[in-house]
Model the fold of this input.
Amino acid sequence: MNKKVSFLLTEGFDFFSFSMVVETLRLANHAAKKELFTVTFINESYKEVMSSSGISIKIDSHLVELNRDEILIICGGKCIEISRKLLGWISDNIEPVLKLSRFTQEL
Done:
């Protein structure tokens, strides 16, 4: 069974928290010797997103409707700016999503 995990990346997201989850999913796939998790990176602008560490992540997709069994992880930083479009998309997709996590950078 393959589980899709979508990371919603906002500008200035905390790279440390993001990379820990991505690496955990990669290691799970490696240990199972099959793809248990498929990872995609999404953003409303469909362009590269800069992390708090200055590392850019290429976006795979813009905001699309999520499937019922998809996991959504929202990665943010200290000062998240959310547009009305993004807030609406989160509201529309939060009910069908099984897990919603938000990583924020603590001072």
About this structure: The longest strand covers residues 3-9. The radius of gyration is 14 Å.
